[in-house]
Recover the amino acids of this structure.
């Protein structure tokens, strides 16, 4: 016995053999080799013992009464499940057909009679190695499965947190937004945000982070916070873009950045303002003419450039009510077919051209993608926003729950914003924050912001910059107007906009007077006010809005000074 | 082929392997074989049963070094699946061969009786 290979680990081995002498011989040999032995004299016994004792290896006689070794092997393999329980057939069978039958029944090896103890020990050891290998593989597979489950769980948790942040906006509530995003697009780096500004404009961001998984999602959190925070406070696209860029530049590693398109849709101004940094071209779809204006990427993605080098210039396109803006992620264009051909912009244009029902555009695109590739990708994001007439200005939620005693009711303040400031600073969010300290004005926050925004941009554009609103009568002039605006602002080195605020208490509550003056040449007030209100005109809408929203409005100093009044009643 | 009834090398190998269990193995074999001989006699006209018993008997007699007995069992197993072969003649030969080796195993067993 000394010649036998050393036993690695004592196994429990089941011997199923109907001949008592053979059973005794085999049991003794195996016991001497250091293993535990269980014995059965037919197939039924073997299966029963296996079920109860779970031996690690089985030596099985092929021909036995009651149930033969083939059937017993089959049942034992089934009971063993994924674990490898080697079955070695004990046989003096010679015919190859019978040997093949042993293998078909799940046998792993043969041991011919008469028994040779050396070969028996070697076979048991070899089978034990296989058995351990299989156990290791199963263990590692289960470990991987657990890690995978853990990862999915983390993603679900991260997504739940993120959804709270991302969906604090109006993406799901707004009636004019349709979007399509795969549920885990977030983990492919796609990000879609939408929120109303205080004046009822809508800001929309479609972003695409480099990278995948949690790193991409983590970058999305601060971006969403900046987007919602600044939109709610009334910051425009340029300030919001600057802040987002600076924040991402600060927190993201060098090889990570965020391609993004940011929109400001204004039903009141009948226009969309666009900044596109690295995203595929979106489109403004003029429903009346069917024309699609591409929203071309003019910038590097967010998080790449330093604050000094960052370009926040935007483009403005006119929109009529019912016109649509369509944005998409590169997952749409980069969908590849079996031959690595990309779907591409040309095929997308074909889908646009073939589209007969604007409301079915997404479905048409999805169908085209599916037909092209054979299956859908999970990182496709699309969004379409229709310009609807402005929603009623929302009543701002009171931010404090105090009795109103701390509300300042008798004060005034004056500002003068000069050329260098006018170039790149938007004072409106700051002014709004200041005015909302007056509790009585909070309920009118939206109207207040809209009026301030209108008066400020009139003072800046028509007053200081001397732009002619008549230019905005058609789409071409509209673009020209905004080009001129950017040019003149860039070269501005004199001029001012002054803002005077006067808050006074009254018996019933209080009044706030807001006067905006500019350094421009004024305008013919009588003539301007006499013009009829034309709903489809791209210009001149501002004044009627101001008159509609404030308690009183008056011009003086040849149109260079405008004064509006807001009143409120004492809070209950 | 020379007619070896009992291979002494197999017996000494078994004695090495079984050590103290060796006499018990001999007892078990004799007892088991006696039952199989009786079963063979009873099943004289049932070719299928004869084949099955012969297969099993072949295994244990081969393990115990009863070379000729194992050969006869092998022949019976082979013949049992052929139509119209005279199996009774083979059963008689097996019966006869076992009667011959039986005393040899018994005398081997005597060496360890205590």
């Amino acid at each position: 016995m000394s010649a036998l290979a050393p036993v690695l680990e004592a196994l429990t081995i089941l011997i199923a053999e109907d001949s008592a002498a053979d059973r005794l011989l085999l049991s003794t040999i195996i016991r001497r080799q250091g293993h535990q032995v269980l014995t059965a004299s037919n197939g039924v016994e073997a299966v029963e013992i296996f079920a109860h004792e779970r031996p690690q290896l089985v030596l099985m006689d092929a021909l036995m009464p009651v149930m033969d070794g083939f059937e017993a092997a089959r049942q034992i393999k089934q009971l063993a499940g994924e674990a490898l329980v080697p079955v070695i057939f004990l046989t003096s069978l010679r015919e190859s057909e019978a040997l093949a039958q042993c293998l078909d029944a799940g046998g792993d090896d043969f041991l011919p009679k008469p028994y040779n103890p050396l070969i028996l020990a070697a076979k048991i050891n070899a089978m034990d190695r296989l058995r351990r290998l299989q156990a290791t593989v199963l263990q590692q597979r289960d470990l991987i499965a657990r890690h995978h489950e853990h990862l999915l769980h983390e993603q679900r948790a991260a997504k739940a947190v993120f959804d709270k942040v991302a969906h604090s906006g109006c993406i799901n509530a707004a009636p004019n937004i349709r979007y399509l995003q795969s549920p885990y697009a977030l983990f492919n780096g796609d990000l879609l945000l939408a929120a109303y500004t205080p004046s009822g404009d809508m800001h929309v961001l479609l972003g695409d982070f480099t990278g995948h998984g949690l790193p991409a999602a983590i970058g999305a959190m601060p971006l969403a916070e900046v987007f919602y925070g600044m939109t709610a406070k009334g910051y425009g696209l340029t300030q919001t873009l600057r802040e987002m860029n600076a924040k991402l530049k600060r927190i993201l590693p060098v090889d990570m950045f965020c391609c993004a398109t940011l929109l400001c849709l204004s039903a009141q101004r009948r226009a969309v303002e666009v900044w596109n940094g690295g995203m595929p071209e979106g489109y403004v779809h003029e429903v009346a003419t069917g024309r699609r204006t591409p929203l071309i990427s003019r910038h590097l993605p967010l998080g790449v450039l330093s604050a000094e080098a960052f370009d926040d210039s935007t483009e403005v396109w006119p929109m009529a009510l019912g016109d649509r803006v369509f944005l998409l992620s590169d997952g749409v264009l980069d969908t590849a077919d079996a031959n690595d051909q990309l779907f591409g912009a040309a095929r997308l244009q074909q889908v646009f051209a073939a589209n007969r029902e604007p409301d079915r555009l997404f479905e048409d695109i999805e169908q085209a993608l599916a037909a092209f590739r054979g299956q859908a990708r999970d990182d496709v994001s699309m969004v379409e926003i229709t310009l609807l007439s402005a929603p009623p200005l929302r009543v701002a939620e009171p931010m404090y729950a105090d009795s109103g005693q701390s509300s300042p009711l008798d004060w005034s303040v004056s500002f003068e914003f000069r050329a260098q400031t006018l170039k790149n600073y938007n004072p409106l969010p700051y002014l709004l924050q200041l005015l909302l300290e007056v509790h009585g004005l909070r309920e009118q926050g939206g109207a207040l912001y809209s009026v301030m925004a209108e008066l400020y941009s009139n003072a800046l554009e028509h007053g200081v910059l001397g732009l002619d609103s008549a230019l905005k009568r058609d789409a071409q002039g509209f673009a020209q107007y905004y080009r001129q605006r950017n040019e003149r602002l860039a070269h501005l080195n004199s001029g001012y906009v002054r803002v005077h605020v006067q808050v006074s208490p009254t018996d019933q509550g209080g009044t706030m007077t807001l006067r905006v003056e500019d350094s421009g040449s004024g305008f013919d007030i009588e003539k301007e006010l006499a013009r009829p209100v034309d709903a489809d005109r791209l210009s001149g809408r501002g004044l009627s809005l101001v008159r509609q929203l404030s308690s009183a409005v008056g011009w003086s100093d040849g149109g260079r000074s405008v004064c509006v009044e807001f009143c409120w009643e004492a809070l209950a | 082929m020379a007619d070896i009834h009992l291979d002494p090398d197999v017996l000494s190998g078994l004695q090495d392997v079984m050590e103290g269990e060796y006499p018990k193995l001999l007892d078990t074999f004799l007892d088991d074989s006696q039952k199989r001989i009786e079963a063979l006699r009873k099943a004289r006209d049932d070719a299928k049963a004869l084949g099955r018993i012969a297969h099993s008997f072949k295994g244990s007699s081969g393990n115990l070094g009863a070379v000729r007995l194992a050969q006869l069992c092998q022949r019976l197993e082979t013949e049992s699946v052929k139509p119209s072969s005279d199996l009774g003649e083979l059963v008689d030969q097996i019966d006869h061969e076992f009667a011959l080796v039986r005393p040899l195993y018994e005398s081997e067993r005597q060496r360890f009786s205590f």
Q: What stands out?
A: Residues 535-539 of chain A have pLDDT under 50 and may be disordered. The two ends of chain A are 102 Å apart (CA to CA). Chain A is about 40% helix and 20% strand. The CA atoms of residues 229 and 235 of chain A lie 9 Å apart.
